[in-house]
């Protein structure tokens, strides 16, 4: 039986907003089929934190795990989508009861409506969520906004709480048309040696 696949990734093109001051996404044909006589060859330039992406702990911890060291099972797992639309701060009490077998939680805030523009604000995630994830055996937290911390944060309390509790981060997922519930998730990072993050093609399927 064919799987139902839901793409929860942002498209990458010149309209994809980058973090303020970061490298924008660009793609061009560096060699055309007419030039080579056989193939088109593309060239891209981008931040590793563009669009839908994962953060490796090395992104915010000098001694943290790098992208090529991440456990792949974290990003190929059973996920529960939870609707937390509304509150300015998302707390443990806003989360749904976990279903059996879930190892990732994806939070739908609906706070990023126009994805051609980098949002000015989005909900704050209470660092206590990281401890709740560990207690419940949830290894991955995904959010539909650019970061688990505010854009202007320098202390990054949620990032560091996730790291202390051995949890992992997926950001910039698109859950607009996804019904809360349990799905299989695939969001594998590129094997970037020594990297601090990676864009991913994130999909849900049943």
What would you say about this model in short?
The chain is mainly β. The chain has helices spanning 33-36, 128-135, 157-164, and strands at 5-7, 26-31, 41-45, 53-55, 76-83, 89-90, 104-108, 124-125, 140-143, 168-171, 181-186, 197-199, 203-205.
Question: Key features?
Answer:
single chain; mainly beta; globular; 9-stranded mixed β-sheet; 10% helix; two-stranded antiparallel sheet; 206 residues; 13 strands; 3 helices; 26% strand
What do these coordinates show?
By secondary structure, this protein is mainly beta. Helix content is 10%, strand content 26%. It has three helices and 13 strands; from the N terminus they run E-E-H-E-E-E-E-E-E-H-E-H-E-E-E-E. It has a nine-stranded mixed sheet with strand order 1-13-11-5-7-9-10-4-12, with helices on one face. Strands 2-3 form a two-stranded antiparallel sheet. A two-stranded parallel sheet has the order 6-8. Helix 2 packs parallel to helix 3. It is globular, with a radius of gyration of 17 Å. The N and C termini lie close together (10 Å). The mean pLDDT is 97.
């Amino acid at each position: 039986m064919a799987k139902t696949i839901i793409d929860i990734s942002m498209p990458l093109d010149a309209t994809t907003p980058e973090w303020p001051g970061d490298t924008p996404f660009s793609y061009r044909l560096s060699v055309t089929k007419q030039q080579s006589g056989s193939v088109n060859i593309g060239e891209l330039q981008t931040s590793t934190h563009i669009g839908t992406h994962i953060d490796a702990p090395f992104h915010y911890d000098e001694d943290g795990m790098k992208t090529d060291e991440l456990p792949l099972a974290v990003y190929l797992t059973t996920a529960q989508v939870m609707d937390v639309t509304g509150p300015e701060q998302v707390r443990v009490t806003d989360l749904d009861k976990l279903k059996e077998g879930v190892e990732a939680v994806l939070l739908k805030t609906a706070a990023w409506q126009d994805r051609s523009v980098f949002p000015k604000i989005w909900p704050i995630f209470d660092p206590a969520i990281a401890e709740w994830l560990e207690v419940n055996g949830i290894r991955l937290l995904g959010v539909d906004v650019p970061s688990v911390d505010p854009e202007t944060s320098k202390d990054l309390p949620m990032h560091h709480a996730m790291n202390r509790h051995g949890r992992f981060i997926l950001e910039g997922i698109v859950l607009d048309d996804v019904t809360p519930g349990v799905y299989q998730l695939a969001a594998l990072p590129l094997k970037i040696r020594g990297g601090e993050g990676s864009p991913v093609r994130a999909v849900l399927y049943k």
